[in-house]
Amino acid sequence: MPEHELPLAVPDAPLDALRARLAADAAGAGLLDVAVRTLDTRVGALLLAATERGLVSVTFDGEHPDATLERLARELSPRILRAPARLDAAARALEALVDGRARAFDGPLDLALARGFSREVVERLREIPYGQTRSYAQVAAAAGSPRAVRAVGTACRRNPLPIAIPCHRVVRSDGSLGQYAGGEAAKRLLLAVEAG
Amino acid sequence: MSRAPFESIVEAHGARVWRVCRALLAHADAEDAWSETFLAALEAYPTLDPARIEGWLVTVAHRRAVDVLRRSSRLVAGEPADRPAPERARDLDLARALAALPQRQREAVVLHHLGGLPFLDVAAQLGTSSDAVRRASSDGVRRLRELLGGADA
């Protein structure tokens, strides 16, 4: 018997409110391992993810985040929910950086996704002062592996926290920009903002 | 094998679970039951069979809704009574009528017609046969029509 013949009309689900409620309940119960939200910025739509320890991932695929969500489920935990509240502060801090109103990310970071040599490189990236750049070779030397220039390039591209951790400040020795997860235009814009 | 992000489970089944909860409960209670259902799923997620999660959610939602009905004999009395929009009146009638069905008929109607589970899945959830579910569903729908005064609007 077709459903439309049945007197079973139910009001539409208020899904946004339900999701917010679930995210709050899950956080309260200690079951929200990874909170995610999108953020529209001048460098594109970002997907932000945070654990209880801090911001853990920033990617430039806010409009099509499925692949990143799958990866976060695999590498961190499948207990992932859209939970904008937990990420409000991180979102404001990132916006401040993109708009040039802050010189460093203000808030806790979780480096769980940067392992091994990548972790070593990411730590060196955090030491590059605002408004300055370094070459891939210089970062390799700082990381104690001067010959690992190519590996540094890979580590920069895989930086789990671009913008917050300034991999955009690493450029080629010849002065050209080099690769960037958010595309060359985004890298150029971030460097221009820092140059004032 | 890795599991899908739980967010995709909410995306895929949020509306379905809401229909089950809201058919039986007033808005605020339905919100509670919806959130409790997904919270229970989130907790059990590492051990839930991905192929059966839909049936699991619908069954748990129904059980939670019935628990709320039992706890508070309020039924839908939690709704403000001073907004008698036609939709609303019909909606309240549906909740009352469903609550008045014998358990098996209500389960069959809610799980199949509102939760969208095939008879076979409902039967598996209730530990009975597909034929028994089909009969209970058909009896339940007939009884619903009587309770609702043959409303076909």
TrEMBL record, chain A:
> What SUPFAM superfamilies would the database entry show?
Methylated DNA-protein cysteine methyltransferase domain, Methylated DNA-protein cysteine methyltransferase, C-terminal domain
- Please list every transmembrane segment annotated in the UniProt record, as residue ranges: none
The uppermost taxa in this organism's lineage are:
Bacteria, Bacillati, Actinomycetota, Actinomycetes, Micrococcales
Task: Output the superkingdom of the source species.
Answer: Bacteria
Q: Which GO terms describe its molecular function?
A: methyltransferase activity
One Pfam family linked to the record: DNA_binding_1
Catalyzed reactions: a 4-O-methyl-thymidine in DNA + L-cysteinyl-[protein] = a thymidine in DNA + S-methyl-L-cysteinyl-[protein]; a 6-O-methyl-2'-deoxyguanosine in DNA + L-cysteinyl-[protein] = S-methyl-L-cysteinyl-[protein] + a 2'-deoxyguanosine in DNA
Key word Ion transport present = no
The entry's protein name is Methylated-DNA--protein-cysteine methyltransferase
Arranged from A to Z, the UniProt key words for this protein are: DNA damage, DNA repair, Methyltransferase, Transferase
Residue intervals of the Methylated-DNA-[protein]-cysteine S-methyltransferase DNA binding domain? 117-195
Q: Which GO terms describe its biological process?
A: methylation
Quote the InterPro entries the UniProt record gives.
MethylDNA_cys_MeTrfase_AS, MethylDNA_cys_MeTrfase_DNA-bd, MethylDNA_cys_MeTrfase_DNAb, MGMT_N_sf, WH-like_DNA-bd_sf
Cite the PROSITE patterns for this sequence: MGMT
From TrEMBL, chain B:
Which residues does the UniProt record annotate as the domain RNA polymerase sigma factor 70 region 4 type? 93-143
Superkingdom is: Bacteria
Kindly give the InterPro entries that the UniProt entry links to this protein: RNA_pol_sigma-70-like, RNA_pol_sigma-70_dom, RNA_pol_sigma70_r2, RNA_pol_sigma70_r4_t2, RNA_pol_sigma_r2, RNA_pol_sigma_r3/r4-like, WH-like_DNA-bd_sf
Record flagged with keyword Ion transport: no
Pfam families per the record?
Sigma70_r2, Sigma70_r4_2
Question: Any idea where the RNA polymerase sigma-70 region domain is?
Answer: 9-74
Q: Sorted alphabetically, which keywords does the UniProt record give?
A: DNA-binding, Sigma factor, Transcription, Transcription regulation
**PANTHER family to which the protein is assigned, alphabetical:** RNA POLYMERASE ECF-TYPE SIGMA FACTO, RNA POLYMERASE SIGMA FACTOR HI_1459-RELATED
What family name appears in the similarity comment? Belongs to the sigma-70 factor family. ECF subfamily.
* Name of the protein in its database record: RNA polymerase sigma24 factor
Source organism per UniProt:
Agrococcus terreus
